[in-house]
Amino acid sequence: MREDILQASRLIREAHLVVALTGAGVSVESGIPPFRGKGGLWERLDPMEFAHIDAFLRNPARVWDILVREMKDIVDRALPNSAHLALARLEKMGDLAAVITQNIDGLHQAAGNRDVIEFHGSFARQRCMKCGKIVPTHLVSLKSLPPRCECGGILRPDCVFFGEAIPLEALTRSQELSSNCDVMLVIGTSAEVQPAASMPRIAKYAGARIIEINTEPTPLTASYSDLWLKGRAGEVLESLLSSL
Ligand code: OAD
Fold first, then answer.
1. Does the reported pTM lie above 0.85?
2. Ligand 1 mean position to 37 CA, how many Å?
3. At 45, which helix (H) or strand (E)?
């Protein structure tokens, strides 16, 4: 067993409150591409042109056609992978209190985690911009774009676009958990997008140990992380689980 994994396992066993912050890297093994780096979505598409709320408001049909349609195809087919399943198992064992996720794919819940904070909202739901009605994404027809609600309003993903605020409850709970945890697992995130990236910093300043799981170093690795468990989220989390 890797020494760094044994160290992480000791920190988790001694902790009273363990929280995970997850990002796109956790879902890569489910076939969902990340945003940054090689093969990332923002390598092909300019986020300011497709993922900013102003771009959506200017031309919702174009954003639906190019970005949202593709995401719907990918997310509709994706299943939880060994990283999601290991995190669900950690919660069941009482070793993980909550998952703060930047992902909008619903895979943590599908794997069985019960306390999941969707920091950037959810792609499982579409919201009418006129009457606020929520429609499950799998029921939305793409025959005519942008799709509309019965009331005639435009449907939009119930996700946070660039330029929009984080849902208040998600932000408040995440800040609370970050301030109170003894260990934060930071998994598969480039830690570049605020305010999500400030959660490990809040945790660190409040005295928590930061355990990063990532294939690559991030801006946190040198200055905030106590341990960097280098590797793919699924493999590392499975080893961690078996060491507990
Ligand atoms: P990124 O795409 O920025 O970063 C993904 C991270 O996962 C990188 O640090 C990779 O090194 C790492 N990674 C890739 N494969 C991995 C694997 N198999 N195991 C472990 N790590 C792996 O994704 P996020 O940090 O989630 O925002 O991006 C944050 C936000 O930026 C997203 O929520 C989205 C995006 O724009 C919104 O949509 C508002």
1. yes
2. 9
3. none
CB atoms within 10 A of CB 94: 8
Q: Which atom of ligand 1 is nearest to the CA of 47?
A: 36
Catalytic residues: 120
CA nearest neighbour of 209 among 10, 6, 3, 2: 10
Ligand 1 close to Cβ of residue 25 (< 6 A): yes
Which atom of ligand 1 is found nearest the CA of 103? 33
Token pair of 93 as six digits? 């064992």
CA distance 26 to 236: 11
Tell me which of 70, 161, 186, 215 to substitute to probe ligand 1's pocket, judged by most ligand atoms within 8 Å of the beta carbon: 215
pLDDT tens-place string over residues 55-110: 999 999 999 998 888 888 899 899 999 999 999 999 999 999 999 999 999 999 99
Query: Which pLDDT tens digit goes with each residue over 10-62?
Result: 999 999 999 999 999 999 999 999 999 888 999 988 999 999 999 999 999 99
Beta carbon of 146 within 6 Å of any ligand 1 atom: no
Sort strands 183-187 and 209-214 into parallel, antiparallel or unpaired.
parallel
The DSSP H or E segment spanning 20 is strand 18-22
Tens digits of residue pLDDT in 186-200: 999 999 999 999 999
Of the candidates 176, 133, 158, 173, the one whose C-alpha atom is nearest the C-alpha of residue 68 is: 158
Under 8 Å between Cβ of 79 and 168? no
Domains and CATH numbers, the chain: 1-32+80-120+166-244 (3.40.50.1220), 34-77+125-159 (3.30.1600.10)
